Amino acid sequence: MKSEINALAARIRALEAELEEKLIERRRDLEYKWSHGRAVFSREVKERQRKLKISAGRFFATSGFLEILTSPFIYAVTLPFIALDLFASLFQMVCFRVYGIRQVKRRDYVVFDRHRLAYLNIMQKINCTYCAYANGVLAYVQEIASRTEQYWCPIKHAERIKDAHKRYAAFLEYGDTASYPDALQEQRAALKAEDDAAEEKSV
After folding, report:
1. What are the backbone angles phi and psi of residue 100, rounded to the nearest 5°?
2. Domain co-membership, 96 together with 157
3. Which DSSP letter does residue 202 get?
4. Looking at the chain, which runs of residues are DSSP E strands?
């Protein structure tokens, strides 16, 4: 059963890689290319984008009054997100070194590039920057938490959980006393092997 689950997980990863290739092809259709680590549009494409931009005044005028009133509630969470970002970074900086596992690269999750889109006005760019930060931090923290969970408690729940992280499928089954604690060491070894493979790939 375990080998079948691992095979299914491998198929999922292969499908994810195939999906990424399709997305790359889609990006080519959207007329931008990569240069020095960022997406770059031609001058002609940027000009077409600018013609689609609406003014900030029109943006507010077409937004619902109640939608505008939610803004303070949205941006009030900025400080908690910053605190979460800082504490998660400090946590992995200290703990992951002790555990001997690789730290999560924050820049792989917290990405700011939507503000370069010429068809967005200033308010839309601010909103997109905020959303990029908030969701990026949550994804970054989830990866830190999932690596910590694999190191300390790689056991599935008895109940099905929705949108589990990518490591969850390989965790031990709930109540599998025969495999624990030897499998715990296997999980830790797998985590470190994953780190070694990532380092070799980056060289």
Report:
1. 75, 30
2. no
3. H
4. 32-35, 38-41
| CA 64/CA 68 separation, integer angstroms | 6
What's the token pair of residue 90?
Answer: 């400090």
One DSSP character per residue, 83-132 reads HHHHHHHHHHHHHHHHHT-PPP-GGGT----GGG-TTS-HHHHHHHHHHH
pLDDT in tens, 35-90: 667 777 777 778 888 888 998 888 888 888 899 999 999 999 999 999 999 999 99
For residue 40, list its beta bridge partners. Answer: 33
Question: Does position 179 have pLDDT exceeding 90, yes or no?
Answer: no
The overall average pLDDT reported for the chain is 88
| Distance (Å, whole) CA 30 – CA 48 | 12
Report how far residue 120's alpha carbon sits from residue 43's, in angstroms, rounded to the nearest whole number. 16
Q: Are residues 58 and 16 part of one domain?
A: no
Q: Does residue 183 share a domain with residue 167?
A: yes
- Report the distance separating Cα 42 and Cα 168, nearest Å: 42
Query: Range of 159's domain?
Result: 153-203
- Confidence (pTM): 0.81
How many Å apart are CA 15 and CA 21, to the nearest integer? 10
Task: Tell me, yes or no, whether 105 and 165 share the same domain.
Answer: no
Phi, psi of 55, rounded to the nearest 5 degrees: -70, 160
